[in-house]
Structures
1.
Amino acid sequence: MTRRTYHRATEAERREDLIAATLDCIAEFGIQGATVRQIATRAGVTGGLIRHYFDGKDQMMQAAYRQLMTDMCAPAHAAVTDGPDARARLRSFITANLTPPVTDPRTLSLWAAFIGHIRIDPVFAAIHREHYLAFLKSLQTVLYDFFREKGAPLDAQDCRRHAIALNGIIDGLWLEGTLVADMFGESELSDTALIFVERLLGLSPGELAAADHT
């Protein structure tokens, strides 16, 4: 196990380092196998310092899951405002969720380690729900803006239904592509998603999938 290099840091930085070390240990040993001692060693601190920031292992796992979900959703949230128009933002949203770092084997391993706790741990369930709803809201925002720019605005119910269905396409391709990443070309997953999202939304072929669109 690699020990992190010690440096004098702020309390916020130390907490971030501990969360990062927790994720590293979970990726290597799983939730059950990752011990507080291993996490302390990876972070380059003492067990006593860990207790200054976390009440115990459960709280560390919860903080690590929150960080994982934040990192996974960050590219999608950024896409909501990053683009010259709503079409570019919708395209960016889809692509961001089907390219690295979101489609990364380590990310999948961590997600798989945590996912079983959602049904049995109310705190994990609350964290998952919080990030799912935020993700869905971001997707609804880009869809609403896209159809408004097209001159065919969606009502709230249709926008939500489209977002749920589109999220299902993204999730399925993310899981498939991350499990067997070597079977797909660099942009094959995102290109496939764009084509089928066009069909789902009743768009013209190439309306999203074409890189340059006027």
2.
Amino acid sequence: MMLAAFAHPVFDSQRNFRELLQAMARPAVPRLVPTPAAAPAPILPATMAVLLTLCDADTALWLQQPNEEVASHLRFHAGVRLVQEPADADFALITEPSSMPPLARFAHGELRYPDRSASLIVQVEGFDGNAGRRFAGPGINDVEQLAIAGLPAEFWQQRAAMSAQLPLGVDLIFISGERMVALPRTTRVLED
């Protein structure tokens, strides 16, 4: 049985898109996903809302844990094209961060076209704004601090290696419960 998506597709997508823009403009600051959408497992409702807001028939999506119910749901509601290889994706959904592919396997753009890179939507265990790594860069006044629970140990080393290649890289949207946090490629992780 096909789950319903947004009750009011145009307005719900617009509300979510505005919050996504705010999340990208204010990196490392958790924001509420205003209109979650019904989702088959293992996708969280907030994650589905982000996918339905960003994906359409012109985008390619890679699923870490593909299953027929998820694929049918996304094709029906967003018309999205699913791809087999991470490097072919405009967007990638990571539902098990502990076993995610290395960041280098995703499209990270070209010097002439840095925008031809992937955005990763990563479901994580939680956020803690009083601990964790310190972030700086565009959209951050001084420093933001945030712990993102559930990422593999090598994740931050991979991101640091990719950050050295700016303007190339991937943009990240983390989802936990009904909250999201964006880390654009321009956000720096400060060393202690």
